[in-house]
Write the structure tokens for this entry.
Amino acid sequence: MPARQKLRRRRRTKIVSTIGPASSTPEMLGRLFQLGADVFRLNFSHGTHEDHAERIRMIRELEERFEHPIGILADVQGPKLRVGQFQGGRVHLQTGQKFRLDLDPTPGNVRRVALPHPEIIHAAAIGTSLLLDDGKLKLRVAHQREDHLDTEVVVGGPLSDRKGVNVPEVVLPIPALTDKDREDLAFALAHGVDYIGLSFVQRPEDVEEAKRLVGGRAWIMTKMEKPQALEHLEEIVRLSDAVMVARGDLGVELPPEEVPLAQKRIVRLARQSGKPVVVATQMLESMITAPAPTRAEASDVATAVFDGADAVMLSAETAAGQFPAEAVNMMDRIVARVEQDAGWRAITDASRAAPEHSSADAIAVAAQQVAHTIGARAIVAFTASGATALRAARERPDCPVLGLTPHLGTARKLAVAWGVHAVVTPDVVSLTETVRRASRIAEDEGFAAGGEEIVVIAGIPFGQSGTTNTLRVARVG
């Protein structure tokens, strides 16, 4: 039997890589993983269930080959609001002209088109703005009727069949999960994915509904892509297991100058709450067609790392781009270089959130402080649910966090958490065994050598979630 291929990242911030036609072979998946992908994202807006089942199978084979947990994110589509079709396929709307949106399915023309979403017609009011085709065109409602909206074109341009509609100023009475999403959700959970990417979230109730459906079988990663969600940010983060800053969709409905501030606010609150946060969309966009990014894109990735994101994500770059391996390698290089910078460490230390008033948080804070003081090689966190490892990661220690868990599902979920190297190991039953196991695994995984010190945190009684109450310093060997 071949020797195990050990894997240890040289950075703390994780990389999420979207899988698609450009990356759906075992060879390419293996290359992306070795170059730096920690989590693979399946975009259920594209592909069939058969496609996704085959990709999940390949990822799990890769995980078995490397004996290293890999997270899988199933990103469900959410409602897609679109206009209908046109006679001839497209029209050109002039700024200042009148244009009607109605429920008539007849192909449209330069004066009208179908809007097969009565919820939008009923929720809109005079003055409501409608954005078409990812914000390229803008309409303003002049009159609202039961079955149509009369609008004025504020920003004109070409408009073709089935282009998207965004309504940034209105909370729409539309659930975050469509019938298609529910089918995709059932499929994803049956195939053991680790996170569900929840789209179109407007209210805390959207997250609550998803949590009821998932029933603890995966972590809910709420995508922050609607301005309405920002009005309930604290509650949505509290209900979520993880958060994604989906800047592409958010940037359609928010003015461009607001998006960086929203990103910082979301990342900051998620960090304070100890919830993993992913910064996503257009990070290395030019690498879809070019072997190197722009300098602005490199700076954008670095900014997310400086902000304290747990992970950064590649979308079309690895799903459909011409240079998927180069994109992962470049992101790995940028992240690793930023984390070597003294300024990054100073900012990270200065932005550490105040602990909650609990013994678990007190232990996590103490572990970071002790590890820093003695120069420990790692903090080893024994964790059943993942909570202990997440608390340790929240403190952003200057040494790695080894998350030891008896559950493979927990180890996979921790793949997105900042600085956590997860290892599956049988449960422990005594403090002596805990320290011995921590020392052995820290050495086996290449984090500490004989004579070096580690900090061990765990909960007593063993095997119960939420009981982190013990800290030990141990010498390896």
